[in-house]
Design a protein that fits this description.
- This protein has 348 residues and is mostly helical.
- It has two domains: 186 residues, Orthogonal Bundle (Hypothetical protein af1432), CATH 1.10.3210.10; 115 residues, Beta Polymerase, domain 2 (2-Layer Sandwich).
- It has 16 helices and eight strands.
- The strands form four sheets. Strands 1-2 form a two-stranded antiparallel ribbon. Strands 3-4 form a two-stranded antiparallel ribbon. Strands 5-6 form a two-stranded antiparallel sheet.
- The radius of gyration is 23 Å and the shape is globular.
Length: 348
């Protein structure tokens, strides 16, 4: 956001433009900088209107020309990164256009009225919503839940919140370039406000990264210690996950259940929460290694559960049915913990 804009001459931005011009012109459609974003869009929306995204990039690049982030990068790299995060989540071109333009009204001379003329009411509404959220002040006295409710109320369109979460995520990835005081304040705000909002929206990949980045910023020594303990507990956890995935995939193929099996190691902030907040010993934490199985129907979901329990013994008291009782954000799944290969607990 605006706090990460460092005053500078236009020399750096001009150099970028010159290099792009030598690569074959300045039209955004032929701009190699846009390729990762457009590739992500095509993967989820093959028939998407790429021209809208290209035009939004052109306008944003021109508006931010001469601005750099405190990392030294041209400022346009930030909205481009935000849009790419959202493209990888499958967001539509209008949302991606708003993401590319989300800082123009706040940080440049490009007005909301002009944006509305150029891109229409829908995109203007999203950009205006993000701009207003950026002006919310989080005082120490404010209760986190109260602030979360205020943020949700201000964002009349849920896409405004989604853009704001991606914006916060990219900024969190670059906290090392701002002052320690500013980074700590933002990290605390992220843990209290934005990570819980990401969870409520079902955006767990963003939630997990926001939490770990904030945790590392606020409590670096504790973070490093948990990283060390997790590494000791599972020195080859990726290889272990591959073994578990292969076993599950074999069983589901034999049962003719169509499924996508993925694995992920447990996130460090989640380990910290279980150890400190819930008072558990490290050895009591079951889900250092977790596997996710995605299926097409509810019937298949229960069939997968049966196959898992046929191969491995379930851990008593660790089964949760979020299909019969969905979460607040309508997330539906079955959770179980089994004693997997080598006698190690695995959460599925």
């Amino acid at each position: 956001m605006s706090e990460d804009v460092a005053p500078t001459s236009s020399h750096a931005s001009h150099g970028v433009r010159a290099r792009l011009a030598r690569l074959g012109g300045t039209r955004a459609g032929s701009n190699p900088v846009l390729e990762p974003l457009l590739r992500a869009v095509k993967a989820t929306h093959p028939k998407a209107d790429l021209e809208l995204i290209e035009r939004a990039y052109e306008v944003a690049e021109k508006a931010h020309r001469g601005q750099v982030r405190k990392s030294g990068d041209a400022y346009i790299t930030h909205p481009l990164a935000v849009a790419t995060i959202l493209a990888e989540l499958g967001m539509t071109p209008s949302t991606l256009a708003a993401a590319l333009l989300h800082d123009t009204v706040e940080d440049t001379t490009y007005s909301l009225d002009q944006l509305r003329k150029d891109f229409g009411d829908e995109i203007a509404m999203m950009v205006d919503g993000v701009t207003k959220l950026d002006k919310v002040q989080y005082g120490e006295a404010a209760q986190a839940e109260t602030v979360r409710k205020m943020v949700v109320a201000m964002a009349r369109d849920i896409r405004v919140l989604v853009i704001k979460l991606a914006d916060r995520l990219h900024n969190a990835r670059t906290w090392r370039y701002v002052s320690a005081e500013s980074a700590a304040r933002k990290a605390n705000e992220t843990l209290e406000i934005y990570a819980p909002l990401a969870h409520r929206l079902g955006m767990n990949t963003i939630k997990w990264e926001l939490e770990d980045l904030s945790f590392a910023q606020l409590y670096p020594k504790i973070y490093d210690e948990i990283v060390r303990m997790v590494a000791q507990r599972a020195p080859a956890r990726e290889e272990y996950l591959a073994t578990v995935r292969a076993d599950i995939g074999k069983d589901l193929k034999e049962a003719r259940i169509k499924a996508v099996v993925t694995g992920r190691p447990k996130h460090y902030y989640s380990v910290y929460q279980k150890m400190i907040v819930r008072g558990r010993d490290f050895e009591q934490i079951y889900d250092l290694v977790a596997v996710r199985v995605l299926v097409e129907t509810v019937q298949d979901c229960y069939a997968v559960l049966g196959a898992l329990h046929a191969r491995w013994n379930p851990v008593p008291g660790r089964f949760k049915d979020y299909i019969a009782m969905p979460k607040f954000n309508m997330y539906q799944s079955l959770h179980t913990t089994v004693i997997g290969p080598d006698g190690k607990p695995v959460e599925v």
